[in-house]
């Protein structure tokens, strides 16, 4: 059984998604609200709880590169958060290119008829779902390793 946690790390929220036990599909789980951008203790503690509760075996963290493929300030913060997560959970954390996931999540919510003021309630969780699903789909394309 593999359970992968997908995270969309933002300055005010962290969208969380979880894979099914077979590692095929991603489901939105929750949005962790952050009081202050530079305070992560409660956020990390909540992620640790989820890791234990769902017996998570790995984490995929959205990596917000710039459209020209450079690493900006948000991506630097994601790298620092990745290192914190690895220390706290002891699990491998994979950075996953998340360019356009928030755009896609917003489009999905818009097409679903969710009003603009309500969209921000769901967009981070849906973006985490997109990040995780992209990662899971890429794993399916890899040839099976013979052990």
Describe this structure in words.
- There is one protein chain.
- This protein is α/β, with parallel strands linked by helices.
- It has a single domain (4-141), classed as YqgF/RNase H-like domain (Nucleotidyltransferase, domain 5), CATH 3.30.420.
- 46% of the residues lie in helices and 22% in strands.
- It contains four helices and five strands.
- It has helices at 41-53, 73-89, 101-111, 116-141; strands at residues 4-9, 13-19, 26-33, 58-63, 93-97.
- It has a five-stranded mixed beta sheet with strand order 3-2-1-4-5, sandwiched between helices.
- The longest helix has 26 residues, at 116-141.
- It is globular.
Question: Which helices and strands, and how do they pair?
Answer:
Elements (H helix, E strand, L loop, with lengths): L3 E6 L3 E7 L6 E8 L7 H13 L4 E6 L9 H17 L3 E5 L3 H11 L4 H26 L6
Parallel strand pairs: 1-4, 4-5
Antiparallel strand pairs: 1-2, 2-3
Helix pairs in contact: 1-2, 3-4
Can you tag this structure with a few keywords?
single chain; 147 residues; alpha/beta; Nucleotidyltransferase, domain 5; 4 helices; globular
The domain count comes to 1
Q: Compute the separation of the termini in Å.
A: 17 Å
Percent in helix: 40-55%
Give average pLDDT, whole number.
88
Instruction: Indicate the structural class.
Output: alpha/beta
The largest beta-sheet arranges its strands as 3-2-1-4-5
In what range is the share of β-strand residues? 15-25%
Number of helices: 4
* CATH A-level architecture: 2-Layer Sandwich
What is the level 1 CATH name? Answer: Alpha Beta
N to C succession of SSEs:
EEEHEHEHH
Shape: globular
Q: Please summarize the sheet with the most strands.
A: 5 strands, mixed
Low-confidence stretches: none
Tell me the CATH topology: Nucleotidyltransferase, domain 5
CATH homologous superfamily designation: YqgF/RNase H-like domain
Rg estimate, integer Å? 15 Å
- The tally of beta strands, per DSSP, is 5
